[in-house]
Amino acid sequence: MNEFWLILGMFVVTFGIRFVMFAFAGKMTFPVWMQQSLKFVPPAVLTAIIIPAVVMPYGKIDISFTNVYLLAAIISVIISLVTKSLLKTIFFGMLVFLLLKFLMAT
Question: Are 67 and 57 spatial neighbours (Cβ–Cβ below 8 Å)?
Fold first, then answer.
């Protein structure tokens, strides 16, 4: 029975937080400086997720030519700068990663 109350409590808290944000979304306006600052949140969050995964794929820092994740990330950045297409960057980045993973495993 305790699990029921725990799950119900988590539901109420999660739903409450999201409902408040959606309920007041059209009624609130942020100051200009905050709107400009919020544009940096997605790149900052993605950087915080991607860099540790690329530089420390197995729990230790590995900045070498044997780190397939780092090589594929560098090549993906180059592909994105050349093509300026998100879809092509994802496709060719994954292709490069799989090829490197396959070739360097043998």
Answer: yes
**76 and 89 Cβ atoms separated by less than 8 Å:** yes
Domain that holds residue 88: 31-105
The total number of structural domains in the chain stands at 2
Q: Check whether residue 8 and residue 43 sit in a common domain.
A: no
Query: Is the pTM here over 0.70, yes or no?
Result: no
Question: What are the angstrom distances between the C-alpha of 10 and each of 2, 4, 16, 18, 61?
Answer: 12, 10, 10, 12, 36
Task: Please indicate, yes or no, whether residues 63 and 17 belong to a single structural domain of this protein.
Answer: no
Handedness of CA 84, 92, 71, 56 (dihedral sign): positive
Asked if 96 and 72 count as a contact pair (C-beta separation under 8 A), the reply is yes
- pLDDT tens string, the chain, 106 residues long: the values are 789 999 999 999 999 998 888 888 778 888 999 999 999 999 999 999 999 999 999 889 999 989 999 999 999 999 999 999 999 999 999 999 999 999 987 5
